[in-house]
Design brief:
Radius of gyration: 20 Å
CATH superfamily: Metallo-dependent phosphatases
Structural class: alpha/beta
Strand order of the largest sheet: 1-5-6-7-8-10-9
Distance between the termini: 21 Å
Bound molecules: zinc ion
Number of helices: 8
Helix content: 10-25%
Largest sheet: 7 strands, mixed
CATH architecture: 4-Layer Sandwich
Shape: globular
Order of helices and strands: HEEHEHEHHEEHEHHEEEEEE
Strand content: 15-25%
CATH class: Alpha Beta
CATH topology: Purple Acid Phosphatase, chain A, domain 2
Number of strands: 13
Amino acid sequence: MARCATPFLVTVVVSVIIAVRSATDGLDYEGPVLRQAAGKALRFSNDSTFRVALFADLHYGENAWTEWGPVQDDNSGRVMSAVLDRENPDFVIYLGDVITANNLPIPNASLYWDRALSPTRSRGIPWATIFGNHDDAAFEWPPEWFSATGIPEVRCPAERFSGSGEKGCSFRGTQRIELMKMEIEKNSLSYTLDGPRELWPSVSNYVLQVSSYVDSKQPVVYLYFLDSGGGSYPEVVSNAQAQWFDKLTKIINPNTSIPEVVFWHIPSKAYEKAAPKPTSPIRKPCVGSINKEGVAPQEAEWGIMDMLSERPSIKAVFVGHNHGLDWCCPYQSLWLCFARHTGYGGYGDWPRGARILEMTQHPFSLKSWIRMEDGTEHSKIVLSS
Ligand SMILES: [Zn+2]
């Protein structure tokens, strides 16, 4: 069926960020959609589906000073283009590690960040981003830059990325909030929000409402985004974030009647409990195609998983971070899923692909599969029906 999403997606629900502030400030709250900006709401298509592509671990800018680096970025762009052309999703989620900031000796990693968004933007598809542990990591001097005399040879990335052509480079990391503001300000298709200020430097904490095709005010599913840290601060979903999530969900979905799906970058410790034995074959009820390494979880578990498990409306959590894992496994009342390594940057040579989600409205269902760069599809699973 021809999918014709874009015209219906032109409208957003930013608004819920206002709900967040109301909740945390103890102000009066008037309804789940407080300020629905004209022309910006995510909606199911006229065929009552909403399809999402997850791009995980692109790692743009890795080894930017070598010939290898830019070639990998081109390859990653090719993967995204292949997936987008095949699946024609209504929405794209960049699931963290968009860039390898620890390899970027420039003041503004936004240039690489922007390049990673380009295949989606050029097709007119809206998107949202969250942070991974590499996106604001501090610059690490490559040992090979040091000459025999011990004086480092300063190398800026290729001029085509520097834009201004200025001499010299700054080597400080680019802050999360800088990256996010650049994206939001420059892109009308970006649905990313910079989250409640009281949670900073954990920035990508927000929710998007996907509405019914027939009524833009009628929520069908809520998509929650959380910043799982790393880079400039610990790899955790903090207790403050968990409390924020708890307040928010009680306001916008108090009786858990609306299905909810959650996205962050680094798997929580619960993933270790749900995981198949590392490097063993994946057996039911888990579904996936690669289980090549152990789960590399967050540093601590401070309440978010208990909150998710207690909400029957939470259907699944999706993470990236482990490039050698692409499984989904059940955990209590929900599913824990890895995406699929999309980028040619980052460790591992496993074939690249993207996890796809497809939701239906009547009745609500959530299916998922993995679309590979070569066009093949595998690991299809119904996560909610
Ligand atoms: Zn990664």
